[in-house]
Amino acid sequence: MESQSMASRKFMTEVVVTIGKEDRVLDAYKLMIDKKIRHLPVIQSDGTVIGMLSDRDVQRAMIVDRPAGNGSEEVYLNGTKKVSEYMSLKAFTAYAETPLGSVVEEMMLEKVSAVIIVSSTMKCLGIVTSNDIMRVFLDQMARNRQIFEQPMSFFFSNTLY
Asked: pTM of the entire structure?
């Protein structure tokens, strides 16, 4: 029963913004800004997950232009670049019943900040991000009240000052 109560589906973000591989990176960037998100699962027309586009992938698509002589620079996205050119094909996925602890271990091991929660047919059901994990952590800490009963000075050392 313990693993069911900690199943990833209970902690995932269910309303997931997705994008297609033929969409423009510029459109993905606008979606990320508008929705205040950092990860877009990339799906096929039937909803099957085929990759992930992160804010770091979008940064790789940015072009820095340094006009000669004035020392300034301009950063912009080429409006014709496709998501398929920058997305990660190795999207980390887990099933909805996967224990959250296993998902967190995988995130730490692979140094990723999001895992797509999928059905047995690889359809996107949700996403677990580092923000979701922090929310779980804070909820647990609030329930235990241990960390919040200490004064802030308890957590910070003054030895460096």
From this structure: 0.79
